[in-house]
Amino acid sequence: MKQLQSVSSSPLYYQLMQRIREDIDRGTYLVGTRIPAEHDLEQLYQVSRVTVRRALAELTSEGLLERKQGKGTFVALKRGAQNLKNVHSFHETCLMNGKTPSVRVLGVRELPAGPRDLEELHLQHGDRMIETSRLLLADGEPVVLEENHFSMAYAYLEESNLSGSLYQVLREYGIEPRQGEHEISLEQAGPRQAEALGVAGGTALLCLREVIFDQRSRPLHNSVQWIRGDRFVFRI
Predict the structure, then answer these.
(1) How does DSSP classify residue 171?
(2) How far is CA 113 from CA 54, 120, 124, 182, 207, in A?
(3) Residues 86-90: contacts with CB within 8 Å, 24+ apart?
(4) CA-CA distance, 20 to 35, in Å (whole number)?
(5) The pTM is what?
(6) 12-75 — its CATH code?
(7) Domain ranges within the chain, ordered by starting residue
(8) For residues 116 and 3, what is the distance between their CA atoms, to the nearest angstrom?
């Protein structure tokens, strides 16, 4: 085992972080497996307990490791990450994170616009809208339950194949998502969200509400997404 360099310009805890990252990338520590205990890491790398604890704390904060009370520290399941400064479809976000996206279309229907839709989509009282409901999966794991609302100008979505990238479908009609307004909160999973996402009722989920605008700054759609925070994160 190559020892860490005490005379390096990089702090020892940072060198240890890099070494653990490399071990995970090489498959020395597999996803879901326990890494050596703190005292073992001290002996392995000839560093102090303080150095080990800081390195593990930083890697846990990054989401690479997770601590389980009374059991130790484990390699965490890699989570997808989406930068909210940019507008990307779920498919694009998954591919950028090295994951395979898939979609289960739960329903597409026409219904009356609600108060929020009237305001956000610039609709009039009595207008109807298109709602799409989909379950989004990364590497076969359900991570997002989404509902999108569109004005009737997008009624063609009722006949479109929505099992792929929704934004790619829109681009085929000359519509380009360009910017968005985002609102993030925590919500407890109700029966519908729990069943779709495979979590227990009452589990805390990220709730992302968005209004997306097209290339002409017109409201394109609004959406609500219930997200498993243990599978998907956002960068702001």
Answers:
(1) H
(2) 52, 10, 9, 20, 21
(3) 87/177, 87/178, 87/179, 87/180, 87/212, 88/167, 89/165, 89/166, 89/167, 89/168, 89/177, 90/136, 90/144, 90/146, 90/165, 90/166
(4) 9
(5) 0.62
(6) 1.10.10.10
(7) 12-75, 80-235
(8) 59
Picking from 139, 181, 134, the residue whose alpha carbon sits closest to that of residue 162 is 134
Strands 204-213 and 179-188: antiparallel
CA distance 174 to 194: 36
- Residue owning tokens 């704390």: 57
Residue 224 pLDDT exceeds 90: yes
**What is the mean predicted confidence (pLDDT) over 90-103?**
76
CATH 3.60.10.10 fits 80-235, yes or no: no
**First CA to last CA across the chain, in angstroms?**
38
Q: Can you read off the two tokens belonging to residue 208?
A: 């992302």
SS3 call for 25 = helix
Bin 172: left if φ > 0, else alpha if -120 < ψ < 50, else beta.
alpha
**Number of residues in the chain:** 236
